[in-house]
Amino acid sequence: MKVSQNEKSLLFSSTEIPDIFFTEYLPEANSDFLKVYFYMLFLSKYNKEIKINDLSKTLSLDFPTVQEAIKYWEEKGILIKKMDGYILSDIQEIEFSKLYSPKITTSPEDAIKTSESQYRAKAIENINTQIFQGLMSPSWYNDISLWFKKYGFDEQVMLALFKYAYDKKKLHRNYIQATANAWSQNNIKTFNDLDAYFEKQEKRNVLNNEISRKLNLGRRLTTYEEEDAIKWTENYGYSMDIIEIALKKASSNNTVKFDYIDKILTDWHTKQLNSVNEVQTYLSSLKEKDKKTKQIQKIAYEYTQSTFDNLESLYDN
């Protein structure tokens, strides 16, 4: 590949990186991809023709990693492939075009002015100061304004969305967008909705951890196992006390499988057993029925055996 810029003395020259790179690109890129970009930016000033193999050796990165890095920056529009190599795009021009392209976007100032209320404008500024230390990239203003319209979140929920991503150390668009979608699918609009959602999630986590501990799984429940647990508690309305009875029953039969546990609880639900007492009464009746069945089988066996012995005695005579 070949990149070009004006040559300068290596000793006294410097490589400039626009501030927008630190707010818009650096947080999402991994360290290896950053190494590749910085080195290519440096080489671009000296009109050097290089190969991926050269980058791999110079940067001490394996060949596939360099390929992935180049693909990553191509997708970001920073690298453009040409017949004779690559050229580096101007990051400032890229971001400028995002802000002032014909599609529905707004400048940071317009995003605040066109917000539905002063509270929303305040929320945007709070995100800027609390999450980005006052250095939020201009493109975030567009995203926040559009997310307000798309999801109908109130101001507290939008601020909570960014705090959530910040605390998870995943302050990038893909994660925030995915989280916003998840919240929206759970009908979250207000902070009270969000508070109820977190409370429900916490209850689910406690239940899942308790089930895992009771069964000595030594791991988190799988997604499918969690779906079963949600069905037992939220659809069937069963407490952990009832679920634990099913867990014990499955364990005693050496059949600690969620399919088996689910069949037990589904059977109880079908029979409208809704309390611990009802479940225990039902299980006691099964034991009594089983006991009587065994007694009948024993009597039948003894009778059959006695008849057989009598017949043998008759033939002996």
Any chance you could write out the topology, listing elements then pairs?
Elements: H1 19-24, H2 31-43, H3 52-59, H4 63-75, E1 79-82, E2 85-88, H5 91-100, H6 108-113, H7 118-131, H8 138-151, H9 155-167, H10 173-185, H11 191-214, H12 223-235, H13 240-252, H14 258-270, H15 276-316
Antiparallel strand pairs: 1-2
Helix pairs in contact: 2-4, 3-4, 7-9, 13-14
Question: What does this 3D model show about the protein?
Answer:
The protein has 317 residues and is mostly helical. The chain folds into four domains: 19-95, Orthogonal Bundle (Arc Repressor Mutant, subunit A); 104-189, Arc Repressor Mutant, subunit A (Orthogonal Bundle), CATH 1.10.10; 194-274, Arc Repressor Mutant, subunit A (Orthogonal Bundle), CATH 1.10.10; 275-317. The chain has helices at residues 19-24, 31-43, 52-59, 63-75, 91-100, 108-113, 118-131, 138-151, 155-167, 173-185, 191-214, 223-235, 240-252, 258-270, 276-316; strands at residues 79-82, 85-88. A two-stranded antiparallel ribbon has the order 1-2. Strand 1 (79-82) and strand 2 form a beta hairpin. The N and C termini lie far apart (109 Å).
